[in-house]
Design a protein that fits this description.
The complex is a heterodimer of chains A (about 325) and B (about 350). In chain A, about 75% of the residues lie in helices and about 0% in strands. Chain A contains 13 helices and no strands. In chain A, helix 4 packs parallel to helix 8. The termini of chain A are far apart. Chain B is of the alpha+beta class and about 350 residues long. Chain B folds into 2 domains: about 5-230, P-loop containing nucleotide triphosphate hydrolases (Rossmann fold); about 235-355, Nucleic acid-binding proteins (OB fold (Dihydrolipoamide Acetyltransferase, E2P)), CATH 2.40.50.140. In chain B, strand 16 (about 310-315) and strand 17 form a beta hairpin. In chain B, helix 2 runs parallel beside helix 4. The longest helix of chain B has 18 residues, at about 165-185. The two termini of chain B are about 35 Å apart. The mean pLDDT of chain B is about 90. Classes of the chains: A mainly alpha (about 325), B alpha+beta (about 350). The interface of A and B includes residues 211, 214 and 312 of A. Chain B: GO terms for molecular function: ABC-type transporter activity; ATP binding; ATP hydrolysis activity. Chain B: Keywords: ATP-binding, Nucleotide-binding, Transport.
Chain lengths: ~325, ~350
């Protein structure tokens, strides 16, 4: 009797084990838990991407299913000065706007991190440009940049600093600067609020310790704030660069890529060639050409996001 | 090293005054502990000394020089924070050498001084590590190392041990004390733990509600507390208090509100002249109660043996009274025992003002 008990227990444990082993296996369960999300991602993100890449290798136009033509679209684009102008514009737009957004956003975050009256209200106001639908704010900028009714021109004229209305969107250089300014206005809140969140994770006692150690305001920023903020900056700027690189709405509302294609970005050029122009294959090729740049940005963030040596090991 | 003088210092945040005129004189090389319950203003006072808070009124001088308007970096002080405030992105070496680097000291000198401090604190093998890779006690030592490296006039400690576990806290207490004996630098140490204050201080400043209640050497505060607050705050387990009045006569007695009558064994001077019938509070420390046939009857409620002693919670004339015995009495809850204070070991306080009555 006594001897039998272990064998019965062992037997039932063995019978339980197949099922219970599966139910406690992290990989097995993890696979099933991830499946719904993976299905959605594959169906709505990965598959359209594959279709887009396929489309870029066909000569499809509106109303005519195309045939596979290999890399001919890309070959054609490589000789297209408008395409290269759009590439240049995209880089100029992304670089300048991202740098300005970063600097102004950081400055704003540092200001908002101080003890200000109505702090919560100010932070809410800062978020406004981010909340307003892009198309609406773009239309507002359209008025601000209007050749005849621009409030900026009106104010400058009143002050007597200019003698004629500024041609904001009619001159290639002005137009580039104008769309970048609008993008910066819209993008700052994201950078500022996220960096503010990062700043608030920095313990005030670190600043006090640095103060006692003899650091000036600039030295505290340079040796304490910046290094501790770097991980957040990597995340924010990756997202900011991705958003800016793929921007479409602002340009489409303000300039439609004009004047003389001076503000055409790759996204707007792709749309223009594919939908109004009907060249679906070529438009897809332009869109696909953005992928390497976006991948580069993601890789940058992948390495930027990696935990630094000082973040590893131990707990707080 | 330097003397520190705090004269008539007040601090107000807006309309709320949190420190109401504090005077403390700290001699060169002295280890002074500011102790008090949370919210008593001790940390604020320390931060004013460090220059992290402005001084509303009064003066603080270091080494004879008023520093009210001197920025922290020019006060030549070093501070150890409660959460250590180590720079997480710098190695132990860089943490300790940061102030020297800011001062523009040559590399060789930084190297030498950091290594000296590391040797004192037994941090030699940890210099390349980052704060996250250290244990609590090691971080604590790095924080002290950062202070030592600077060789400041005054060391400030803001509850440095409160994040450590009990055992480590006791060990670090001794270590900080030993460090002070070695370096002999003026030290101001803030804590809410009266044991830390008693064990470490040359001089204790007891603070309460933004005021100094008493300043003195540890045993002075223990033996002759100036008022009810100090009496109740210093000592663990805390002093027992029995409200009552004094009946003068042939042998003056204390009669508690609960009817407990105790002879005042050594008739204190002044008893009898106007003190008769006056409401007072009698204080007696748990370790100063002993079993005595002529003592007051008490009912045992809870018995807590700690090994070295037993702590007995009793009901004495309606008041909760705790007694501590070194002998291993086998009391049970419900037992009736008779206890009396040891001769000369009672404290009398005025019930209204809380001031000590007997000189």
């Amino acid at each position: 009797m006594v001897a039998e008990i272990p064998s019965v227990t062992a037997d039932s444990a063995y019978r339980m084990s197949l099922w219970s082993r599966l139910m406690t296996d992290r990989n097995f369960l993890g696979f099933w838990f991830m499946l719904p999300a993976a299905a959605v991602l594959i169906l709505f993100l990965a598959w359209p991407l594959v279709l887009g890449i396929w489309l870029s290798m066909t000569d499809t136009t509106i109303g005519r299913p195309g045939v596979f033509i290999g890399l001919e679209n890309f070959d054609w684009l490589s000789d297209d000065p408008v395409f290269w102008l759009a590439v240049f514009n995209t880089f100029l737009y992304t670089t300048v706007a991202s740098i300005v957004k970063f600097l102004l956003g950081l400055w704003l975050a540092l200001l908002l991190n101080k003890h200000l009256p109505f702090k919560a209200l100010l932070r809410a106001i800062v978020l406004l440009p981010w909340i307003v639908p892009t198309v609406l704010s773009a239309i507002a900028f359209w008025w601000i940049y209007d050749a005849q009714f621009s409030i900026i021109s009106w104010v400058l004229l009143k002050f007597g600093w200019i003698t004629a209305n500024v041609n904001f969107l009619g001159d290639p250089d002005n137009a580039r600067a104008s769309v970048i300014a609008a993008n910066v206005w819209r993008g700052i809140p994201f950078v500022a609020i996220t960096l503010l969140a990062g700043l608030q994770t920095i313990s005030p006692s670190l600043h006090e310790a640095a103060t006692i150690d003899g650091a000036s305001g600039w030295q505290r920023f340079r040796y304490v704030t910046m290094p501790l903020l770097t991980p957040i900056i990597a995340v924010v700027m990756t997202f900011s660069v991705l958003f800016t690189f793929t921007d479409f709405q602002l340009i489409y509302v303000l300039t439609r890529g004009g004047p003389l294609n001076a503000t055409h970005l790759m996204a707007t050029l792709s749309f223009q060639r594919a939908i109004p122009g009907g060249q679906l294959g070529e438009g897809a090729a332009i869109a696909v050409a953005m992928i390497p740049f976006l991948l580069a940005a993601i890789l940058f963030s992948y390495f930027g996001l990696q935990r630094r040596k000082w973040q590893q090991g131990g707990r707080d | 090293m330097a003397a520190v003088d705090i004269v008539g210092v007040r601090k107000a945040f807006g309309a709320t005054e949190v420190i109401h005129g504090v005077d403390i004189a700290i001699a060169d090389g002295q280890f002074v502990v500011l102790v008090g319950p949370s919210g008593c203003g001790k940390s604020t006072l320390l931060r004013m000394l460090a220059g992290l808070e402005s001084i509303t009124d009064g003066t603080i001088s270091i080494d004879g020089k008023v520093v009210n308007l001197v920025p922290p970096k020019e006060r030549d002080i070093a501070m150890v924070f409660q959460n250590y405030a180590l720079y997480p992105h710098m190695s132990v070496f860089d943490n300790m050498g940061f102030s020297l680097k800011l001062r523009g000291a040559p590399k060789a000198e930084i190297d030498r001084r950091v290594k000296e401090a590391a040797a004192i604190l037994d941090l030699d093998r940890l210099l390349e590590r980052f704060p996250r890779q250290l244990s609590g006690g090691q971080r604590q030592r790095v924080a002290m190392g950062r202070a030592i490296v600077r060789d400041p006039k005054v060391f400030l400690f803001d509850e440095p041990l409160s994040n450590l576990d009990a055992k480590l806290r006791v060990a670090m207490r001794t270590e900080i004390r030993a460090l002070h004996q070695r370096l002999r630098s003026t030290t101001v140490y803030v804590t809410h733990d009266q044991i830390e204050a008693m064990t470490m201080a040359d001089k204790i400043v007891v603070m309460h509600d933004g005021r100094v209640e008493q300043i003195g050497e540890p045993l002075e505060l223990y033996d002759r507390p100036d008022n009810l607050f100090v009496a109740g705050f210093i000592g663990s387990p805390a002093m027992n208090f029995l409200p009552g009045r004094i009946e003068a006569g042939a042998g003056p007695r204390f009669v508690s509100d609960g009817g407990v009558s105790l002879p005042l064994v050594a008739p204190p001077g002044g008893v009898g002249s106007g003190i008769d019938g006056r409401p007072v509070v009698l204080g007696v420390r748990p370790e100063h109660l002993h079993l005595a046939d002529e003592g007051a009857a008490a009912e045992v409620l809870v018995v807590e043996p700690t090994g070295s002693e037993i702590q007995v919670f009793t009901k004495l004339g309606g008041a909760d009274v705790m007694a501590v015995f070194r002998e291993r009495h086998r009391f049970r809850p419900g037992d009736r025992i008779r206890v009396a204070p040891l001769p000369g070991q009672i404290h009398l306080f005025d019930a209204e003002s809380g001031r000590r009555l007997v000189p």
